[in-house]
Design goal:
alpha/beta, 14 helices
Length: 444
C-alpha cells in the first residue's frame, strides 16, 4: 500500500508539458527516480466540462453511469447558477469510497462534486456562493462562504477553512488556489492521509480570459509550479514523499472562440420560451442549456421536439452548428446521458450562448467561462487534449498513448494498492498486464 496524491491542474494540456518540463516542481515529478509515466492526449468525455471530467476521473465511470452530466444544474430561471457540488450527485463509488472500504484515510481539497461526502475524512470541497444578494458587501460574502463551507466540509475540513479563510476575498482564482494549497499543506502535516486529491483552476481561468495559448498562460503555469513545489516540500518534510504515488493531470482541452450563437433566441421567437422584461426566462417549453462549445436541448414535453427542431433549423442552414446528436446517439457514441432531447455542437470558433433576446450571433463574453474567448465543453476529439502524469514507487516510466479519463481511477488504485471491483468501473487499469496504453518512442 502506498500513499496517493493527485493534483488536477484544470485545462492542463499534453502540449503544456513541453513548456513546464524545466519548471522546478513539474520537472521534479517528471524526472523522479527512473522517470514518470506520461500519458499523452487522454480521451475525454462529452461535454468536456470540469465537473463531468472530475466525476469521471474520480470514479472510473462514464457520465451515463456516474450521474454528473454538466457543471451546472438546469434552472433557466436563475441562469443555471447552481453547480453539481454535492457528492450525493454521484451514483457510483469513487476512489474515496474504495479507499475508505479498505480502512484508509481520505482527504480532499477542492475536487469537484465532493461536498458532504461521508467517505472523505478531511474534506474541503469546491463550493462557492452564487447568490447575488450575498455579494453586495464583504460581510455578506463572508457569511455566505461560512455557511456553504460549514455544510460541505467535514468537521476537520471546516477547521481548515476557518484557519485559512482570510485568503478568500471570494471564491475566485488565484486566491482560491492559494487557499486550497494552504489547506493541502496542513492536511499533510496534521493527518498524513493515505489518499489526497486536490484541484486547481488558475490555468483554466487564464485560458478562458485571455486565449488558448495567450502569454498569460505561461504565468499561470509558473504559479501552478510554485504550488506544486509546496506540496512536494510538505510530503518530504513528513517523510512520505518516497512512498507516495504522485500524480498531476489535466481534465479537458480548450478551443478558440470568436462568436456566440444563441439558439434560445430562435426558441423564444417560436414561442417556446417566455422572456421577462429584464431578459430572463419567465417560462419555457424548450430550452438550450449551454455547455460552452456545445449545448443540450431540454423539453418540458417530448411532443414539442418537432417544433423545437423547426425553430433551430436555421442553425444548420447557416452553418452555426456542426453536429446535432439525439439522446440515444450521445449515449451510444459518447457514454453521456441526461434528460435532454438533443445535443448541439457549435461550429468552429463558435460557442453556444444563453441569451433569449437580441441577435442570433454575438461576440464573446468574459463574464461567463462558457462564452469566453477560449472555452471547452466540445466533442472529446476536438482541440487540445489533457495529460496524465504518474510518478513514484512501482511506476514504469515512459510515454504512452491510448489512455482515457475513465482509465485513471483503476490505474491509480492499482498503483497505490487500493482494492476495488473492476466490474464496477468502465475504465481499465493502464498498468494491467494487458493494457490499452501504447508505449511511444523515447523522442519526447
Amino acid at each position: 500500500m502506498h500513499h496517493l496524491f493527485v493534483m488536477s491542474v484544470d485545462a492542463l494540456f499534453t502540449t503544456d508539458l513541453a513548456d513546464v518540463r524545466h519548471l522546478p516542481g513539474f520537472a521534479e515529478v517528471l524526472g523522479r527516480g527512473a522517470g514518470a509515466a506520461v500519458y499523452h492526449d487522454v480521451y475525454c468525455v462529452y461535454p468536456t466540462l470540469t465537473y463531468v471530467c472530475h466525476a469521471t476521473m474520480a470514479s472510473g465511470c462514464w457520465p451515463m453511469h456516474h450521474g454528473v452530466p454538466h457543471n451546472q444544474r438546469l434552472n433557466p430561471a436563475i441562469c443555471d447558477r447552481d453547480w453539481y457540488w454535492e457528492y450525493a450527485s454521484m451514483r457510483v463509488p469513487t476512489v474515496f469510497d474504495w479507499a475508505k472500504r479498505a480502512g484508509l484515510t481520505t482527504a480532499n481539497v477542492g475536487w469537484p462534486v465532493t461536498a458532504g461526502a461521508p467517505c472523505i475524512d478531511h474534506n474541503v470541497p469546491e463550493v462557492w456562493t452564487v447568490d447575488p444578494e450575498a455579494l453586495q458587501t464583504p460581510e455578506a460574502t463572508r457569511a455566505a462562504l461560512d455557511d456553504i463551507y460549514r455544510r460541505g466540509c467535514s468537521s476537520s475540513g471546516y477547521e481548515l477553512y476557518e484557519a485559512h479563510r482570510d485568503l478568500l476575498a471570494n471564491n475566485k482564482t488565484p486566491e482560491l488556489d492559494e487557499f486550497d494549497i494552504a489547506c493541502v499543506e496542513d492536511i499533510i502535516h496534521r493527518h498524513h492521509p493515505d489518499v489526497l486529491y486536490t484541484h486547481q483552476a488558475q490555468l483554466d481561468h487564464a485560458r478562458h480570459l485571455h486565449g488558448v495559448h495567450a502569454p498569460q498562460v505561461q504565468e499561470a503555469l509558473r504559479m501552478h509550479d510554485a504550488w506544486l513545489q509546496r506540496v512536494i516540500a510538505a510530503l518530504k518534510s513528513e517523510g512520505i514523499w518516497d512512498d507516495t504515488i504522485f500524480v498531476f493531470l489535466g481534465d479537458h482541452g480548450h478551443i478558440q472562440i470568436d462568436y456566440q450563437v444563441c439558439p434560445n433566441v430562435l426558441l423564444a421567437k417560436a414561442g417556446l420560451i417566455d422572456v421577462a422584461p429584464d431578459g430572463n426566462v419567465a417560462g419555457w417549453r424548450a430550452y438550450v442549456q449551454s455547455s460552452g462549445a456545445s449545448g443540450q436541448l431540454f423539453l418540458r414535453d417530448q411532443d414539442d421536439l418537432p417544433a423545437a427542431r423547426r425553430a433551430l433549423q436555421p442553425l444548420l442552414d447557416e452553418g452555426l452548428v456542426s453536429d446535432v446528436f439525439t439522446r440515444e446517439e450521445v449515449r451510444v457514441r459518447f457514454h453521456e446521458e441526461g434528460e435532454f432531447a438533443l445535443m448541439l455542437e457549435a461550429a468552429p470558433n463558435h460557442c453556444i450562448g444563453a441569451e433569449c433576446t437580441g441577435e442570433l450571433v454575438v461576440g464573446t463574453d468574459a463574464t461567463d467561462y462558457k462564452f469566453a474567448v477560449s472555452t471547452h465543453g466540445h466533442l472529446p476529439f476536438r482541440g487540445e487534449k489533457p495529460c496524465f502524469v504518474v510518478s513514484g514507487p512501482g511506476v514504469a516510466p515512459g510515454h504512452f498513448a491510448g489512455a482515457r479519463l475513465v482509465d485513471e481511477a483503476p490505474t491509480l488504485m492499482d498503483l497505490a494498492g487500493i482494492p476495488y471491483d473492476p466490474n464496477a468501473l468502465d475504465g481499465e487499469s493502464l498498468v494491467a498486464p494487458v493494457s490499452r496504453a501504447v508505449r511511444l518512442p523515447q523522442t519526447w
